[in-house]
């Protein structure tokens, strides 16, 4: 039998956040209204060859969420389900932009549940205005020196200066 996790309304939202976008902020803001505490876990994700260092990405997320009182930001380099279990968190937040996200996220949710049956995955959809925003799109625009300021929190722009 698995160790009982806390019933305190606490959730974890993870990602590479390379960089954090307005779409991520949409999900974070809404999760912060649902849960007493939301841990934003920034994945090391070296296999994805991120554009920004892990330290930069953690800093960008901290700067972007500094005005949301019940949000805490940490970095990690482990299985998300193990991190959640160690932090005694039983709810994982995932964002779904499109049907194409659903299949992957559903598989991950099932995989996490197979490791720890006490883990629940809650899927949130961003608002329509942020449904197309992804870190991949932002990185492409940055690579070509395009305008991306409307896609990321202004704190990210300040950090990039």
Could you walk me through the main structural features you see in this protein, from its secondary elements to its overall organization?
The protein is α/β, with parallel strands linked by helices and 161 residues long. The chain has a single domain, classed as Rossmann fold. It has 6 helices and 5 strands. Strands 3-2-1-4-5 form a 5-stranded parallel sheet. α4 links the parallel β4 and β5 (120-124). α2 (54-65) packs across α6. The chain is globular and about 45 Å long. The N and C termini lie far apart (51 Å).
Q: What brief labels describe this structure?
A:
Rossmann fold, 161 residues, 6 helices, 5-stranded parallel beta sheet, 18% strand, alpha/beta
Question: What's a quick, concise take on this entry?
Answer:
By secondary structure, the protein is of the alpha/beta class. It has helices at 22-34, 54-65, 80-86, 99-115, 135-143, 154-160; strands at residues 10-15, 37-43, 71-76, 91-95, 120-124.
